[in-house]
Amino acid sequence: MLHNTDKIRVMIVEDEGIIAMDIMRTLTELGYTITSVSSTAEVAVSRAQTDKADVVLMDIVLGGEMDGIEAAAQIRSTTGTPVIFLTSYSDEYILERAKITEPFGYLLKPFRDRELYTTIEMALYKDKMHRKLKESHEWFSTTLMSIGDGVITTDEKGCVTFINKAAARMSGLKEEEALGLPIGEIVTFKEENTNGLAEDAYDPIAIAKASKTPYTVTDHLLIAKAGKAIPVSATTAPIQDEKGNILGIAVTFQDQTKRKEMEEQLRHLVLTDSMTDLNNRRGFYILAEHQLKLAKRLNKEFAMVFTDVDGLKQINDKLGHLIGDSAIMDTALILKETFRESDIIGRVGGDEFVVLITEVLGITEDVVRDRLHNTLTIYNARQNCPYKLSLSVGFALYQPESDLTINALMAAADRLMYEQKLRKYKKKERR
Questions:
Q1: CATH superfamily of 272-430
Q2: Which CATH class name applies to 9-142?
């Protein structure tokens, strides 16, 4: 006995009795345990489940309808037991057929005891490594399948070799449907611009081959096969062999929908007036500055309207601040109904509101005043309203050749608004 092999169980499949007895004797002397000796493939397949052998010595040419190659394939698929082929033939056709079953050894008869021992030990070692590799693969596969991030791997041509559940869900395909398809037919990554729209796509295959290192992008949209767009961050990395040759790519991507929603909620809180749901001063300035840059670039005009509520202090003093707040909210509604959705409306003070009219073609100060007057008339005609709303308005026009800033325009409109308010006050005093 070469070493302690008494725990290793060997199943013998050989139809020549003398050779089978000789192999059994040799193995016993080497310290192996023989589970059974079968002379046909059919018997060997039926015994494989109960024998629970560690390795099978299988003659290729057997009597009966099934040969050793077919039997080995069935045993391997049902029990996973490694198979070593025994044969007196070195025929090329037989060898090619045997390769399909992925044997763990191949012995030509007659063979020596040392050859038999070495082949069995090598087969057992290869099987051990194979099981460890398979176990690791299962661990990694299960982990990748269970994580929330999408994972896709491809071959060197960009065809999908693996896709986890998250990636399949985001792409709108079943896992089995995606396998073998070019990655570009499943998902496309496009850069998301400031308006939340998709711009030029990037090719993960080209990027992986060009950079040969992981490449991460943020603020991108994953365009699924069904056309659905999902905000994601994505990382593309090449899969390389030991020589640096690219065997494929791995793409991981994380759904950023919830983060985007939270950012939008925070942005809304920071830039929106909580009482009126209009832009607050900060929100208005951000949008107005953007409009100013656009107007300069396109050589276009826009208008600034500054307005506040006449007599709000009297409403608060006589009716209370809750009613005063209602007057503020009614003013916001009046402005929304008077101006277009494309115009920028903000509440910049207690009773002060400002409107940036983005398209001024046909819009004059008189037009703005008439529209506001009509909307106010409808509101003031309401029943059971304890106050009548009145607004003072200042109108300032921006021309692209001027150097006026947003602050300067607002100041100009504010001054004109104050002048109108003063005229109203003097007119009221004269009555």
A1: Reverse transcriptase/Diguanylate cyclase domain (3.30.70.270)
A2: alpha beta
pLDDT per position as a tens digit, 255-290: 888 888 888 888 888 999 999 999 999 999 999 999
Residue 18: burial class (beta carbons within 10 Å; 0-12, 13-18, 19+): exposed
The pLDDT value given to residue 101 = 67
Q: Which residues pair with 354 in a beta bridge?
A: 306, 346
Predicted TM-score (pTM) above 0.85: no
Distances in Å between the Cα of 78 and the Cα atoms of 48, 56, 120, 182 are 9, 13, 20, 33
User: Which of the residue ranges 56-65, 198-207, 399-408 has the most confident prediction, judged by mean pLDDT?
Assistant: 399-408
Strand 150-154's sheet: what is its strand order?
160-163, 150-154, 246-255, 229-240, 215-224, 187-192, 198-202
Helix/strand/coil for 251: strand
Q: The tokens of 271 are what? A: 């830039």
Q: What's the pLDDT at 197? A: 46
H helices of 172-277, in order, are: 175-178, 204-211, 257-271
The amino acid present at 147, given as its one-letter code, is: I
